[in-house]
Design brief:
The protein is built from 15 helices and seven strands. By secondary structure, it is mainly α. The protein has a three-stranded parallel sheet. The chain has a two-stranded parallel sheet with strand order 4-7. It has a two-stranded antiparallel sheet with strand order 5-6. β1, α2 and β2 form a beta-alpha-beta unit. Bound molecules: adenosine monophosphate and tryptophan. Adenosine monophosphate (AMP) binds next to α2.
C-alpha cells in the first residue's frame, strides 16, 4: 500500500479509549525505579516495552519548542492542559530542541531557551516525579524513528502542511529540509512512546492527522512482519482497510477548551506567536505584572460594549479573543463570562482581565525565575527524564528495527 491511507479507519483507537483510562490502569510500585514516588497510573509493562500488550496503554505525549518568548497561547493552549493529565495517565512532556533547529538558531542561546521551557513546565505544576520531562535531543530514538518515518511519509503529504508553507514563506527553495520533514519528527516523538493522547493547540491539528496517517501506513505496509514477529496489538476496530494487528496506535488529538487558539493582542485574525515582531502582540510568560497590564490596556478592541451572547462576538475577533482568554484563565465558560460582563465597555472589562491575568500568571513567572536561577536543578530534571524516556522508547525502536528487517550485529 503506497497511497494515502483510507479515512474510514481514523477511529481505530476510539473504542478502548472511551473507557475511563484510570479504570484500565494498574498500580505499579516499580514503575520509576527507587528514587521516585510510584505513579498510580503506570503499567509495569510500560518499562519493558509494549510488544506483548493486548491493547495500547493510554499515554500522553506533548512537546513545546525552545524557541524563546513562551507566551499565553503556549500556556493556555498547551502547558496548562498538561498538568491535570499527569494524574490521569502516564505522561511525557518534551522540550523539542531538535525541532528548534529547523529554522536558523543561535547555539549559544539554545540551552537557555531549553531550560526556560522546562522551568515553565515545572512552574505550571508538572511534577517531574509523576510525569517524564526531558529534552528531545538527549533521547536518540526520536531522530532514528524520524528517519524511518521519512521513508514512510509521502512528499505529497508533507507538501500540504500549512505550517511549512507559512514558515517557509515565499523563499521555499531556501527552507531547510528539516523544516519540510518536521512533521515526521513530530510523529516519531509521539510514536516512539506509542502515545495515545496528544494535547496541543489548534495549529497542530494537521500534524497530528499526519501522525495517524504515518502510523496507519506503517501498520499496513509491514503487517506481515508485525504479525510474524508477534509484535502486533489487536486492532480494536477491525476494518477491511487495516490489518487485524497494529504496531503503532492511531493517536487521539486532544484539542479542546476555550483556548485552543489564542490570537494576537494587536490583530484578532492572527495567532499569538513567539515570532511576531511586536512584543505588544503577546503576553510572555516572563512579563512583569506591569507589562501584562499595559499589554491588555493597549490590546486592540472595538467601540461596542460586550454582548450577552456568543453570537454577538461573531464579527468581533479581538473582543472574542479577550473573552476567550478571560474564560480560560478563570476556568469559566465563555457564556458565563459574557453573562457577567454583558453590556459593559472595555474600560471595565480590560482592567478586570488584567487583574485576572496578573493573579494567575505572576506566581508562575516568579516560580520560573526562581527555577532558572538554579540551572543545575533543571538540567538534573532533564537528565533523569531522558533516562526514563529512553527506557520506554528503546524497546519500541528495537522492535521497529526488527520489523524493518535491519540486521542486528550486536
Ligand atoms: P510551539 O510554540 O509552536 O512549540 O507550540 C507549543 C504548543 O503551544 C503547541 O501545542 C501549540 O499548538 C500551542 N500554541 C502555540 N501558539 C498557540 C496559540 N496562539 N494559541 C493556543 N495554543 C498555541
Ligand atoms: N510541533 C509542535 C509545535 O510546534 C511541537 C511538537 C513537536 C509536538 N513534537 C510534538 C507537540 C509531539 C505534540 C507532540 O507546537
Amino acid at each position: 500500500m503506497q497511497g494515502r491511507p483510507a479515512k474510514t479507519v481514523r477511529s481505530a483507537l476510539r473504542p478502548p479509549l472511551s473507557l475511563a483510562p484510570r479504570a484500565r490502569l494498574r498500580h505499579n510500585p516499580r514503575a520509576h525505579g527507587t528514587c521516585h514516588a510510584p505513579h498510580p497510573a503506570i503499567d509495569p509493562r510500560s518499562k519493558l516495552g509494549d510488544s506483548h500488550l493486548t491493547e495500547f496503554q493510554p499515554r500522553v505525549f506533548s512537546g513545546v519548542q525552545p524557541t524563546g518568548n513562551l507566551h499565553l497561547g503556549n500556556y493556555l493552549g498547551a502547558i496548562a492542559r498538561f498538568v491535570p493529565l499527569q494524574d490521569e495517565m502516564p505522561a511525557i512532556y518534551c522540550v523539542v530542541d531538535l525541532h528548534a533547529i529547523t529554522v536558523k538558531h543561535d547555539p549559544a542561546l539554545l540551552a537557555g531557551t531549553t531550560r526556560e521551557v522546562t522551568a515553565a513546565y515545572l512552574a505550571a505544576g508538572i511534577d517531574p516525579k509523576k510525569a517524564i520531562i526531558f529534552n528531545q535531543s538527549q533521547v536518540r530514538e526520536h531522530a532514528e524513528l524520524a528517519w524511518i518515518f521519512n521513508c514512510i511519509a509521502r512528499i505529497g503529504w508533507l507538501s500540504r502542511m500549512t505550517q511549512f508553507k507559512e514558515k517557509a514563506g515565499k523563499n521555499r527553495e531556501n527552507a531547510s529540509v528539516g523544516l519540510f520533514a518536521y512533521p515526521t519528527l513530530m510523529a516519531a516523538d509521539i510514536l516512539a512512546y506509542r502515545a495515545t493522547h496528544v494535547p496541543v493547540g489548534d495549529d497542530q491539528k494537521q500534524h497530528l492527522e499526519l501522525t495517524r496517517d504515518i502510523a496507519q501506513k506503517f501498520n499496513n505496509d509491514f503487517a506481515d512482519q508485525i504479525k510474524e514477529l508477534g509484535l502486533g496489538i489487536p486492532n480494536p476496530t477491525p476494518s477491511p482497510e487495516l490489518p487485524d494487528e497494529l504496531f503503532f496506535p492511531l493517536t487521539e488529538p486532544m484539542i479542546a477548551g476555550p483556548a485552543t487558539r489564542i490570537m494576537s493582542l494587536r490583530d484578532g485574525t492572527k495567532k499569538m506567536s513567539k515570532s511576531d515582531p511586536s512584543d505588544l502582540s503577546r503576553i510572555n510568560l516572563r512579563d512583569s505584572a506591569e507589562e501584562i497590564a499595559k499589554k491588555i490596556r493597549k490590546a486592540k478592541t472595538d467601540p461596542e460594549p460586550l454582548p450577552s451572547e456568543m453570537d454577538g462576538l461573531a464579527e468581533r475577533p479581538e473582543a472574542a479573543n479577550l473573552v476567550g482568554i478571560y474564560a480560560a484563565l478563570s476556568g469559566k465558560s465563555k457564556d458565563a463570562v459574557l453573562s457577567e460582563f454583558a453590556g459593559q465597555p472595555f474600560s471595565i472589562f480590560k482592567p478586570a482581565l488584567a487583574d485576572l491575568a496578573v493573579d494567575k500568571l505572576a506566581p508562575m513567572t516568579g516560580e520560573m525565575n526562581r527555577l532558572l536561577a538554579d540551572p543545575g536543578h533543571i538540567d538534573a530534571v532533564l537528565r533523569d527524564g531522558a533516562g526514563r524516556a529512553s527506557e520506554i522508547a528503546g524497546p519500541v525502536l528495537r522492535d521497529a528495527r526488527r520489523i524493518m528487517g535491519f540486521l542486528e550485529g550486536r
